[in-house]
Amino acid sequence: MIWLWLGVGLWSGLHFIPSLARGLRASLIERLGEKAYKILFSLGVVGSIALMVLGWRSTTPVEIYQTPPWGPPIASALVLVAFLLFGLAHARTNVKRFIRHPQLAGLVIWAIGHLLANGDSRSLTLFGVLGLWALVEMPLINRREGRWVRPDPVPPRAEIRPVATGLIIFAVFLFAHPYLFGVSPIPS
Fold first, then answer.
1. Inter-axis angle of helices 71-89 and 102-117, nearest 10
2. Do 67 and 153 sit in the same domain of this protein?
3. In Å, how far from its chain's centre is CA 61?
4. Can you give the pLDDT of all 188 residues of the chain as single tens digits?
5. Domain that holds residue 29
6. Final residue belonging to a domain, choices 38, 59, 80
7. Same domain for 145 and 80?
8. CA angle, 184 as apex, 180 and 187 as ends, to 5°?
9. 172 and 79 share a domain?
10. pTM of the model
């Protein structure tokens, strides 16, 4: 489980730097240059994901709580909503007029969905910690960026590509889930 904790710790720590350690971030950019900083940050994120996957796969799950029988189907629906929010977060969309942080909100929904379907120790670590991180990150970003200026409306057709992107990513992860994580999200 140590690799899993290291992965979620590295992920959280790296992502807290822009909000909680702006001086450190500025110092690193000044010393390394912005491009090198972004490359190192990206490598750290990829490394944290690798540690989480390695930690997940190498940890024997211990049941912590019993999930409800309706948990898995609700989890699938919530994960779909999460991937749609991930897709909508990276374009000018109307969702951003109602949700300031669609990607982080999607991550919270993704975590809740997984916790409804999995009541074991490694799930609680991975999904619980990442969900909490996203909940903490939102007000930190709000404090850093100041008052929310809601974007102007966009035509509904502007949301077609981001929704399609979210659906495609959902389908890819649905298919790849057993190979990446050793667990099929589709009940047999």
1. 160
2. yes
3. 21
4. 999 999 999 999 999 999 899 999 999 999 999 999 999 999 999 999 999 999 998 999 999 999 999 998 899 999 999 999 999 998 999 999 999 999 999 999 999 999 999 999 999 999 999 999 999 999 999 999 999 999 999 998 988 999 999 999 999 988 988 887 777 887 66
5. 1-59
6. 59
7. yes
8. 170
9. yes
10. 0.89
